[in-house]
Q: What sequence folds into this?
């Protein structure tokens, strides 16, 4: 009986040490994997940081291409109107969007200052009447940065 008790306690002690060694091995494995994942995360974060300038250029290019596609989809008369309008645009005015429906062409844009917007309006009044029958500002607003946003409606 004593011998049996010794064997059982020895086996239990061996099983306990095997369990501890397995637990320690698993802990070391998890630590190594965690370190490996942290290194991969750092590498990917660096890749993302290096792509930020490219991303902003991509967004800008995408918006410009979208506007170009919109212009190319227009019929001939609005294209002519746009080309004529382009000759009237003064420095400091930028176009942000174009909508065409039927006989009306709506252009969204931005002016660097109220003086530039005023100069653009005077150019429209002076030279624009030969390109379109009616030009009307549907909305003008000022941003916190001091830029003026406008929506211009042109009819032929």
A:
């Amino acid at each position: 009986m004593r011998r049996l008790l010794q064997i059982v306690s020895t086996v239990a002690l061996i099983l306990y040490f095997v369990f501890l060694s397995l637990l320690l091995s698993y802990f070391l494995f998890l630590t190594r994997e965690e370190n490996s994942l942290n290194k991969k995360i750092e590498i990917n974060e660096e890749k993302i940081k290096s792509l930020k300038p490219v991303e902003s250029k991509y967004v800008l290019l995408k918006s410009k291409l979208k506007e170009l596609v919109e212009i190319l989809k227009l019929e001939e008369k609005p294209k002519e109107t746009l080309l004529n309008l382009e000759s009237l645009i003064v420095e400091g005015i930028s176009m942000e969007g174009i909508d065409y429906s039927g006989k009306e062409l709506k252009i969204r844009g931005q002016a660097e200052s109220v003086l530039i917007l005023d100069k653009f309006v005077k150019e429209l009044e002076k030279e624009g009447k030969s390109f379109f029958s009616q030009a009307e500002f549907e909305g003008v607003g000022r941003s916190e940065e001091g830029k003026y946003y406008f929506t211009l409606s042109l009819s032929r």
Remarks:
- Helices lie at 2-73, 76-88, 114-127.
- The mean pLDDT is 81.
- Strands lie at 93-101, 104-111, 134-142, 148-155.
- The chain is about 65% helix and 20% strand.
